[in-house]
Every structure is written in structure tokens, then in C-alpha cells.
Design brief:
There is one protein chain. This protein is α/β, with parallel strands linked by helices. Helices cover about 40% and strands about 20% of the residues. It is built from 9 helices and 11 strands. It has helices at about 1-20, 45-70, 120-130, 155-165, 185, 190-205, 235-250, 255-265, 270-285, and strands at about 20-30, 75-80, 90, 95-100, 110-115, 135-140, 155, 175-180, 210-220, 290-295, 305-310.
């Protein structure tokens, strides 16, 4: 009798552990300043202004969704963090602080400040496990003993903008930041197999942890929508953004890994490598995902997309 009770308790504990150990959602969010507050967006085109507000409202919606999920940890992939040439860098500090501003209104006065608690234990697990599997990963700390610093690790727009919309979830959950390597600027297509593999391995590691986890891919799309923009105009911009949207709605990897990849070198998207990593992560899950494309617009020279992936019951 005692043995059967012990077995029942063990199985119950195992079930609870497995049910709590889950990636509860993945989201694609922009980091362009327009999303923060379109009131400052200096556009005379009514359509562009309306699109800016749609992006903003969708980001607010995603932030509320993340808050409702009550994650214990939020993993953010940033293309504009502190980078290394080759390695994917995890920030290994107990806290982070940074700011961003919005387009056409710099900080100060338009300062969007953010303080976050960082998940050093989660970083240790990810880095040690991925290193054992020969992945190109490392960690960075700042201003003190690794993982024990008094000064916060510096954050900027690549992390601050998406997390700002999810700030109400930060009182419950800690943050893990993954900075994409600087080789993404010139070798994003060559990185596709590596990114897919990294995403798959990250899912298996995260899914084994006893907590609820949310993934945020900080990503802007093509940066070549306007001739007057800093990168000029390319005919690759529109089909690239469209292919990324198709990837979300269909979850067909080819839309991203083949079609979008064909255009990315001319479209100039900072978020492509993060999206590819996410595709690998999603495909590693034993469960299917409900995906929703909330916004895919380019009110300015760069495209911005909001998307959600939620595991099916």
C-alpha cells in the first residue's frame, strides 16, 4: 500500500514537473522606435501613420498576452546587442538596465527606460549545455564578478523595445538575453543550418527546465523599403517581408529558409537570423503551434512584424 502511494505521488510530481516545464509561447516583435509611440512619427502619409498605430497596437496586444501567460523566464534574441564576431552571446548578470527612444524624438526627453532581473541560472544551463554540444556560444558579464555584479548589464533598443511592451510580466519572470553574432550582417544565409540546429537544441534545453518560458525574437524586417532611407530602396524588400509573413501563417519552413533567404542579402533584415533560429525551435517541439500574424507593415523604411506562436492544447 505504501509503495503504491509512493509511486502515485512520484507520478503526480513527474506530471506536474512536465506540465510546468514548457515553452508557453513564442513571439516576433519589432524594435523600431516607431512602435513605442507613433505620436512622434514624423510622417505626412496617412497610410504610413495608420500602419504605425497598427504596429503599436499589435505590440500592446502581444505584451498583454505575454503578461497573461505569467512566464517564469523570457528569452529574448536580439540582433542589436553587445556582440562577438563568431559566438552567440548570453548576458550573464543578475540585472540589466537600458533605454530606447522613439523615431523623431530622441532621449531625452523621449526616454523609455527599463530595468530587468536576469536569469543567471538559466544562462548557466544554456551555455554549459550548448558548449558541451560544440555550439558557438559564450557569455558576457560586466563591471564585476560574473553573475554577481552590482551594476546592471547595459541594454539598448534591441532588447528594450520588445520588453517594454511586456514590462508588466517582468515582475514575475526573469530575462535571458541572447545576442546574435556580428557575422549575421554578411553571412546570414550561410548561418541557416547552424541557426536551425541551435534553435532545436535550445528548445530541448528550455523544455527540460521546471518553469514556464516565453521566447521573444526581436526583429525588424527589410530595411530597404524607401529610397530616402539610410539603406536606399531594393525591390527585394517587399517580397522578403511577404515571405516572412507567409512563414508565420503557414509555418512552412521553406517560406523563410528558401524564399526569404533568397531576398535577405538585398532586403537587409536585422531580424532574419532570429527568425531562422525560431523556426528550428518551433520544429523541435513535439506539439503543434497556433500561429497568428498580427501586423506586417513598413510605415517607414524598415518592415515591422508582430506574430505569435502558442502551443496547441
Amino acid at each position: 500500500m505504501k509503495a503504491s502511494i509512493a509511486i502515485a505521488l512520484f507520478l503526480e510530481a513527474l506530471f506536474v514537473s512536465q506540465s510546468e516545464s514548457v515553452v508557453v509561447g513564442a513571439f516576433v516583435m519589432p524594435h523600431g522606435g516607431i512602435a513605442l509611440d507613433p505620436r512622434y512619427f514624423n510622417a505626412t502619409n496617412a497610410t504610413a501613420k495608420a500602419q504605425a498605430w497598427l504596429v503599436h497596437d499589435s505590440a500592446v496586444q502581444v505584451g498583454k498576452h505575454i503578461e497573461d501567460l505569467k512566464p517564469d523566464a523570457i528569452v529574448v534574441s536580439s540582433p542589436h546587442g553587445i556582440t562577438a564576431p563568431e559566438d552567440f552571446i548570453f548576458y550573464f548578470s543578475p540585472k540589466g538596465f537600458g533605454f530606447s527612444d522613439t523615431d523623431n524624438c530622441a532621449c531625452p526627453p523621449c526616454c523609455y527606460n527599463l530595468s530587468v532581473a536576469m536569469d543567471t541560472n538559466g544562462v548557466e544551463v544554456l551555455v554549459s549545455t550548448l558548449k558541451d554540444e560544440k555550439e558557438k556560444v559564450s557569455y558576457l558579464s560586466a563591471f564585476g564578478p560574473p553573475g554577481k555584479e552590482d551594476m546592471p548589464f547595459p541594454l539598448r533598443w534591441g532588447e528594450v523595445v520588445p520588453l517594454y511592451f511586456a514590462k508588466n510580466a517582468l515582475g514575475h519572470g526573469k530575462v535571458i538575453v541572447l545576442s546574435q553574432p556580428s557575422r549575421r550582417y554578411t553571412k546570414s544565409v550561410q548561418m541557416i543550418p547552424e541557426l536551425t540546429q541551435l534553435g532545436r537544441k535550445m528548445f530541448k534545453i528550455l523544455h527540460s527546465q521546471p518553469e514556464k518560458i516565453v521566447i521573444i525574437i526581436s526583429a525588424d524586417l527589410a530595411h530597404t523599403h524607401l529610397k530616402s532611407g539610410p539603406y536606399g530602396f531594393s525591390t527585394a524588400a517587399e517580397p522578403f517581408d511577404k515571405a516572412c509573413g507567409t512563414w508565420v501563417t503557414t509555418q512552412k519552413s521553406a517560406s523563410l529558409l528558401t524564399e526569404a533567404a533568397f531576398y535577405v542579402d538585398k532586403a537587409l533584415s536585422c531580424g532574419f537570423t532570429g527568425l531562422v533560429m525560431l523556426d528550428g525551435l518551433l520544429k523541435a517541439s513535439p506539439t503543434a503551434w497556433d500561429s497568428h500574424l498580427l501586423a506586417n507593415f513598413h510605415p517607414s523604411y524598415y518592415g515591422m512584424m508582430l506574430a505569435s506562436f502558442i502551443p496547441k492544447p
